[in-house]
Amino acid sequence: MSSDLGTRILGRDGLEVSALGLGCMGMSQMYGAADRQESLATIHRALDLGVTFLDTSDVYGDGHNEELVGEAIAGRREEVQLATKFSLSRTPEGEQVIDGRPENVRACAEASLRRLRVDVIDLYYQHRVDPKVPIEDTVGAMAELVQQGKVRHLGLSEASAASIRRAVAVHPIAALQSEWSLWTRDLEVAGPDGSTVLGVAREHGIGIVPFSPLGRGFLTGAITSPADFAEDDWRRTHPRFTGDAFAANLRLVDAVRGLAAEKGVTPGQLALAWVLAQGDDVVPIPGTKRRRYLEENVGSAAVELSPDDLAHLDAIAPPGVAVGGRYANTAYTYGDSPERAA
């Protein structure tokens, strides 16, 4: 596999992926209406640019996103490192449910394989840890999928340090997907036992796959008012995008914009470059449904940050700088999971 982006390795078993991935969720939900043809064209353009690490989930659009990705990669499967997830679903009333039971692991994997039109999933994540099911049971069922040749590598998403330790005792974990950006640095914050999620992941050779590395688009500098969101964009009700929090968080964006201007890059490219600079085991997956934003994101790989640049960014965006919670409902974050202290 070759590209101008270069590649990085996730996990000790050598999952090689493009240094930048593509989050496909927004092509099916959350961020306003999507254009199917533009979404397909964006995935094709990503592959042409060497962005070959594609991220989806069975819950995105209730299966629509996996079907879309499957259609997009038909005929180009050998170019792609394909990641999907299971364990989250929605009730008819729209309530999210976490299900880590072994029988659900198996059923979800079979359904994902069908929707994606592939024989094997390169990286299979538990989307959220189920506090009602021992993680050893869930990962044990995931490991069986590896033994059967249906999955190549295993991952966790938004898992706590305690869950990571328990999971790796059952099977190697290649990647941890969690939110990480200049305005969400929770991975770096020590828990009650003094350890950080980031530190425990690295202790076990687990690669880090940051989602929302652009702060759900806020760090691009393109969002200046809540009125910039479409009526059906979920950010209209997000704690960091409403009321006084919005104005407070704009100050962080202004500081990022100032440094970006000095370096002759866009704020989004600077924010992505910061994430990429956090280590060779870090592979951010900025999401977009448009080719022009994809191309801008790819340009971040060429941005070089000096030690002074990194120190400056650390000073203007320390852990906890963002005002407002990560979600309106915190039930699905590692920080609020009942299993965190297990």
Automatic annotation (TrEMBL):
E.C. number(s) listed in UniProt: 1.1.1.-
Keyword Transferase: no
InterPro entries: Aldo-Keto_reductase, NAD(P)_OxRdtase_dom_sf, NADP_OxRdtase_dom
Transcription regulation is among the record's keywords: no
Pfam families named in the record: Aldo_ket_red
Name of the protein this chain belongs to: Aldo/keto reductase
Keywords assigned by UniProt, alphabetized: Oxidoreductase
Phylogenetic classification of the source organism: Bacteria, Bacillati, Actinomycetota, Actinomycetes, Geodermatophilales
Highest taxon above the source species: Bacteria
GO molecular function: oxidoreductase activity
Segments forming domain NADP-dependent oxidoreductase: 20-316
Species this chain originates from: Blastococcus deserti
